[in-house]
Every structure is written in structure tokens, then in C-alpha cells.
Amino acid sequence: MDKPREDYNDKQVVSEIMARCFIPTLVTSISWEAFHFAGHEIRITEAMDCYGAVVWPSALVLCYFLETNAKQYNMVDKNVIEIGAGTGLVSIVASLLGARVTATDLPELLGNLQYNIFRNTKMKCKHLPQVKELSWGVALDRNFPRASNSFDYVLAADVVYAHPFLEELLLTFDHLCKETTIVLWAMKFRLEKENKFVDRFKELFDLEEISSFPSLNIKLYKAMKKNRRSA
Ligand SMILES: C[S@@+](CC[C@H](N)C(=O)[O-])C[C@H]1O[C@@H](n2cnc3c(N)ncnc32)[C@H](O)[C@@H]1O
């Protein structure tokens, strides 16, 4: 970031972030929302039946960060994985910015995720993004063998909330990261139980708060594995 976070005018930046979302007033049989990032209109189809079926504000914060910090966090030709990708907005923006993206989520989310990703990246991206199942903590060695993981970035938006897989989530972050991998993680603060996750996370990762948006209760973190030899 160019400016220290104290200089951030929370309200001003948050209204700029939220202005990237357009909700059509005309109600049609297909519901979608439009977002403006990386020079493109991105149309996201949502569903109402699960957490991953809508775009959460943390995703907007992370997309805005990626777009406005594209020099410092250059996505071009980088290997990027998103966990808990939901509707896919963050993965789409990373792809539009030039990354080689793998978007992941639970199996039941993959149909809509694939649809949104294909619709918004086809003929627009240098590297066609992949969509893969990744249930936190499940079959990690088989599906994402440590030896072949070479992610430059792990992206995550709003993956910490009242679900029973927080330990598996931590395991997954750890599994996907090598010494030089950068985690960019937008976290919505809700209840104490979930907030304790940050303390657990800090046992394995060096964590740096890179922005904070008090009016949204969202913080953006950068993290790298502890005890790395070089970074
Ligand atoms: C609050 S939503 C956030 C979605 C998206 N990142 C966003 O910010 O719009 C949480 C996401 O985590 C996914 N998720 C929840 N539990 C999971 C698990 N055990 N393994 C993998 N993904 C999971 C959900 O399917 C959902 O897409």
C-alpha cells in the first residue's frame, strides 16, 4: 500500500468499494449482480441457498485491493489459488489481472462457480482459470500434493465464521503455502469464537494487517509462513 492504513478514510474508501457493485432494479428470472473491477463489468449469478451463493463484502474489499495494488502485488503469470471462492468474484478479478487461477470450494458450489468464472473470463484472460473441489482439510495430500503446490498467492475472503471447520481451514492454509507464498485474506469480524482463529493462525503464519475498514468490520491481512528461510 502506498499510504499507511491510518491515513485511510474508511468511509470514503468503503463507499468507493461498494460503488463497484450494481444491482439491477429490473427483476428477471435470472438474478445477477454486476461488479466493476480490472476494467471489466463482471456479472455474477447468485443463489439463495448457502453461504457461498452470494458475494460477501470481504470479496469486494479483496478485489478492490488487488486492482488498486496491482503494481505491488502483481498478478501477471502468478500461480494463485482461492479457497472458499463462493460465486468466484475474487478469482475472476485475479484472472482478469493476469493470474493463473485455481478457484476452489465445496462440491455443491462448483456448478455456479464454474458458470460465473467461464462467463466472465472467456476470451478476456491470459490464462483460463481452473475450478476444483477443495473441502478444507479433506484429501489435501491426494488432491493438492505438497510437493507440487507452487502457489505464489493464496486468496481468501470471508472464510472464517461460525462453521465447525476452523481447524481444517488452518490446516488447508498451511498445506497450500510454501515458504514464499503470500496469503491475502479479507476477514469479517463477527463473534469472539471466530476472532480467536486469528490467534491460532498467528501460531503458524506471520500476519500483517494491511487495511482496515471499521464501518464494514473487515480487515485485510497479508500472511506468510513462519520460520521460512527466505521470502
Ligand atoms: C461467507 S462465504 C464467502 C464466499 C466468497 N469468498 C465471498 O467472499 O463472496 C464462505 C465460503 O466458504 C466455503 N466453505 C465453507 N465451509 C467450507 C469447507 N469446509 N470447505 C471448503 N469451503 C468451505 C463456502 O462454500 C463459501 O463459498
Provide structural commentary.
By secondary structure, the protein is of the alpha/beta class. The chain is built from seven helices and ten strands. The chain has helices spanning 10-18, 57-68, 89-96, 110-121, 140-143, 166-176, 192-204, and strands at residues 21-22, 32-37, 40-45, 79-83, 100-105, 130-133, 153-157, 182-188, 205-213, 218-225. The chain has a seven-stranded mixed sheet, with helices on both faces. It has a three-stranded antiparallel sheet with strand order 1-2-3. A hairpin with a 4-residue loop joins β9 (205-213) and β10. α2 runs parallel beside α3 (89-96) and α6 (166-176) packs parallel to α7. The chain is globular, with a radius of gyration of 17 Å. The mean pLDDT is 90. The chain binds S-adenosylmethionine (SAM). The site of S-adenosylmethionine has 22 residues, from α2.
Q: Percent range for helical residues?
A: 25-40%
Main sheet: strand order: 6-5-4-7-8-10-9
Count of beta strands: 10
Bound molecules: S-adenosylmethionine
| Overall SS class | alpha/beta
Q: State the separation between the terminal residues, measured CA to CA.
A: 18 Å
How many strands, what sense, and barrel or not for the largest sheet? Answer: 7 strands, mixed
Strand content: 25-35%
| Coarse shape | globular
Number of helices: 7
What are the low-pLDDT stretches, counting only 5+ consecutive residues below 50? Answer: none
Rg value: 17 Å
Q: Averaging pLDDT over every residue, what do you get? A: 90
Order of helix and strand elements from N to C terminus = HEEEHEHEHEHEHEHEE
Pfam family, one: Methyltransf_16
Protein name: Methyltransferase like 21E, pseudo
GO molecular function: protein methyltransferase activity
InterPro entries: Methyltransf_16, SAM-dependent_MTases_sf
